[in-house]
Amino acid sequence: MAAAANTFMSTSAVGNREDIDNIVSRISPEDTPIYSSIEKGKAKATFSEWEVDELAAPAANAQAEGDEYSFAATTPPERIGNRTQIFRKTGIISGTQEAVDNVGNNEKLAEQKLKKGIEVRKDVELSIVANNASVDGTTRVSGGVPSFLETNVSRGSGGANGGYNSTTKLTVAETTGTARAFTKALLDNVIDQVFQSGGNARSLQLAPKLKTVFATFMADPNVAQLRTAVPARGNKTVLSGSVDVYQGPNGTVEVVGNRVMAPAAVARRGLILDFEMLEWLWLRKIQEDKDVAKTGDAKKFVMLGEGTLKVKNEAAHGVVADLTVPA
Known about the structure:
Elements: E1 39-42, E2 47-52, E3 78-83, E4 85-94, H1 95-99, H2 109-129, E5 153-154, E6 163-165, E7 170-172, H3 184-196, E8 203-206, H4 208-215, H5 221-224, E9 245-248, E10 251-257, H6 264-267, E11 270-273, E12 278-288, E13 298-311, E14 318-320
């Protein structure tokens, strides 16, 4: 039935209050799986250095009785380093906006500072996984993991290692090769290289779309027969289409879909890492610059940090590079 004549409807009212939830939903992921897992240290200069050494390969060692000693030359450890990078996020909010009643306070100064701090941490994660060569000067760049790796690698045709240049004291970005399919054989090969080099592979970092490719490795009969079943949840049957831990012939790794690796520039490689052999060195931890001048009816803020990646020994890690990423 129609409403009675002259019924005043909500559609005509001008004084009804808005119904807006005070909970602000943010879907953007905040996880930083590598940065959150590795040790944090202290840098004391814009160029941090450390030494890398290795044992001689095993050799036959049988000596003659009564033999006179001979003395081998001492090989000094290699000295490598990385440059600190300045990370910064800024914002400015008017005095009026700070004073008004705001839904969820999401556009208030304190919330924006928190948000920008999280964004800086995600930028740090990206700098770790990106194929960035280190850069000196006033706009310094911290070399990413791929720019250090030379020992345990698998590359497509035309791909080439980067590495640390002891003359320039900078890392060199790897050269991109021809893309090829991600296979279990490629992965097992690099995990084996890490093992043979003395490393202990602990984590396989993949772009989310490459983790879906990794899940297809379960079709391999050598994997399927060893796969552990997923228990049912209550009265619900669970179909597992993923793997979070992979035990290969020479190492067990946690398989992580790293959302920071989703961009095309970093998605085409799988990083095999030993978190104990990585460290993030802060010259200046993420903080607010309290000395930003007020120049008008607004509050400015700057969140910044300065730090660098320490790859304690690149032979503890590996990379399966030049992988085809599904659309």
